[in-house]
Amino acid sequence: MEVINAIGRRKSAVARIYVKEGKGNIIVNDRELANYFPLEQLQYIVKQPLNLAEVADQYDITVNLQGGGIKGQAEALRLAIARALVIMKPESKGALKSNKLLTRDPREVERKKPGQPGARRRFQFSKR
After folding, report:
1. CB neighbours of 83 closer than 8 A, spacing ≥ 6?
2. Which residues fall within 8 angstroms of residue 32, CB to CB, at 6 or more apart?
3. Do residues 32 and 79 touch, judged by C-beta distance below 8 A?
4. DSSP string, 83-112
5. CA 80, CA 14: separation in Å to the nearest integer?
6. How deeply is 123 buried, as exposed, middle or buried, from its count of CB atoms within 10 A (0-12, 13-18, 19+)?
7. Could you tell me which of 1, 5, 3 has the C-alpha nearest to residue 81?
8. Distance between CA 113 and CA 118 in Å, rounded?
9. Reduced to 3 states, what is the DSSP secondary structure of residue 63?
10. In 1-128, where do the E strands start and end?
11. Tell me, what's the pLDDT at 56?
12. How far is it, in rounded angstroms, from Cα 98 to Cα 32?
């Protein structure tokens, strides 16, 4: 089987993945998944599409992650894995779609405006 690649984005994080048949190893930026994402919750987020499609130990995944924070990176990786699974195993699309794993979350951080301390926050008003 050839290598399948896919891309996932979330906030400012970008995940590029390369999937091939193997034993279920996930390598993120030349590190093991448990080493890169030490929290169990983030590991669960990453493995969610694999568990839904019931192929958790059938594919080796190599990941290049850039930008964003740790949560955004985990969710970008989840989207990339879900997209790659649809290419490799089209019958799993229904389960992934019903759990909203194929939808890119469009929410981004709103930019800071001039004359304000933040995007919406105003400086404290002083009457006198």
Report:
1. 6, 7, 8, 102
2. 25, 26
3. no
4. HHHHHH-GGGHHHHHHTT-SS-----PPPP
5. 9
6. exposed
7. 5
8. 6
9. strand
10. 4-10, 13-21, 26-28, 31-32, 59-66
11. 86
12. 29
Question: What are the structural domains, with CATH classification, of the chain?
Answer: 4-98 (3.30.230.10)
Two tokens at 115?
């004359």
Residue 111: both structure tokens together: 């930019």
Structure tokens at 6: 């896919």
pLDDT tens digits, one per residue of 66-118: 999 999 999 999 999 999 999 999 999 999 999 999 999 999 999 999 999 99
Beta strands 26-28 and 13-21 are unpaired
**Closest to 85 (Cα-Cα) out of 21, 12, 15:** 21
Quickly tell me which residue has 């279920």 as its tokens: 24
